[in-house]
Amino acid sequence: MNILIIGSGGREHALAQTYSKSKKVKKVLVAPGNDLMNFKNNKIQIFPNIKADDFDSILDLAKRNKIDLVDVAGDAPIAAGFVDKLKSNGFMCFGPSQKASEIEWNKKWARDFMQKYNLPTPVYKSFSNQEDALKYISSNPEKTFYIKASGLALGKGAIKVQNKKEAFKAIASMKQFGKSGEVFLIEECLTGEEFSLFAVCDGKNYQIIKTAQDHKTVYENDQGPNTGGMGCVTQPKIITSSIIRIIENKILTPFMEGMQNEKRPYHGILYLGGILNPKGEIKIIEFNARWGDPEAEVILPSLKSDYLDIVEGVLNSKINKTKISFDAKTRISIAGCSSGYPNDYSNVKDKEILGLEKAMELPGITIYGAGIKRKGPKFFADGGRIFHLVSEGKNIKEARKKAYKAMSLISIQGNNLHYRTDIGWRDMEKINQISSASWPRFNRGRRIKSQN
Description:
Oligomer: single chain
Number of strands: 24
Largest sheet: 9 strands, antiparallel
Shape: globular
């Protein structure tokens, strides 16, 4: 089979590599892709001149290369209805319809849906008028809220505010998101520990794939603005078998039934962003209609099953009969970013990345490209999140040690590499709490190699 993936980040790189392992796959095309995807992998071809939002060029590429399956991996092309359009042109597609994916690209609709079907959601109120929003904040001056753009905002549209002044500033900032910020939500601030859970759905049935824990803020100790994700770990310790049962009964099953009732049956990867509060209650932060990034980079390599078999299980409405198995390893990812990310990092563009191949040679290390360019034997920065370094180990301690050893080998010309040094700190603290009280507490680390 010939596979086409739409996208260019670490998520798409992980997908391309996963598809390429299948004996049934002849070649994997990625549009636009990035320059690390086909580095030492002849089965993967990239098309950097085709933009992920250029449907006509993507359709032409699919026709010319006799594509058997298109994986619409990113939020923007999914929201733009690429799955529906490609299907109408005779192509087999993996991903939700535009109507089903509204669960991600319209937060107001999503919250209303959750409320209608009694899914555990925070108290919220939607606004399209800033004056009304300011009045609402003024009537609740002591509360902590999240101000969220209703549309897609690259993971940066949620702003935590702890007082009236911060709230007014966040409400005014919704304009920067254009149409995505024309409608915005004010939500109660949930407290607890966050997690990401992924399920694969065929419209009626689903299987939970795996869980992970993202680290969204740019700095250590969960400080600074939100990003697309600074790193994550697999199988966070807060997710027990009893928590999984609650998620199935209270969230996933009613979600699937509700989407059928709304005439929007859900097909593809469903991403539940949840939070477990100190009382043991689960609330939904958000649903996304695709793999997370960086979560895909740590979950997909753990698959022992052929990923194409899973995709075909969805397409044939037999996901409940599809066997899905994983290895027992723990994985951790660390995002290597341009100094200044998620704000202005323009001064880092085209600076050389050093030590990347040396890090790749270490056992148990894989590096997925994102905002990266290759010129001959050299690599250069070309985005905010440049690469995702993934390590594997028998437990989080081993995986984490490998990851930071590998990261210490990498730099960007002019000391312009930034990454968090405390990825996995929550599980490390839990391990230390269980261990002997005489052991020193885990140090979350300090920021290095950064000018932020």
